[in-house]
Give the backbone structure.
Amino acid sequence: MLEGSRTGRLSAGPRLSCIGLCESCRVRGVAICRALEPNALEELAALATRIAVPPGKLIFEEGEPASYLFTLVEGVIKLYKELSDGRRQITGFLVPGDFLGLAHFASYAYSAEAVTEVALCRFPRESFLRFMERHPALERELLSRASSELASAQEQMLLLGRKSAKERVASFLLSFARRQATGEGAVVALPMSRSDIADYLGLTIETVSRSFRAVVDEGLIQLTDRHHYRVLQPDRLRQVAAVS
């Protein structure tokens, strides 16, 4: 598991009203707001604030009051749970268009930290929930995403419980490329550290490095630099990942 000093707390940063930003938003077609008609979208935008968060800063911490919900507009976020001995288990990575912060109880069930510079639309929780009651299409969109997240959690359990190190790394590379909606042969950004990837996959950093080297040597991917890769043989990579 990942160890190290605690990240810095998020301090006051740039904040902008989201009014007028929605129609030109780059994640408009993949975020939860895609379910809304123009008038409803304007109403939702009036509730939101656009905030910027620098790399390494917490957006919220496990156990804090769940006062806000967020749509990720730019950048990558990692989610993690804190263990009693101070270690952290990374449970997921979010990419633009993902929604975060929805809590079943009054507090956040996990912590969220910016991997890169990120931009988010931030919604006050109570105002968002009241808005959702008036707009069932948004509620249906969130239910659909919750179902997808449950399927992803089941895949993650399979990955951690049954797959080899090489299969885990191949699965991760395929999934991350797919979630960034990159075309075949396109360069995929991989901004997180090898330590973060190792923690997410339940492996050591050394094992992750060896598995990366194996899929590179077999011509399945090309590392354009330490934080970017290109999938060269998607069908073969799926076979290695044991993905149907």
Observations:
- The first strand starts at residue 15 and ends at 17.
- The longest helix spans residues 136-162.
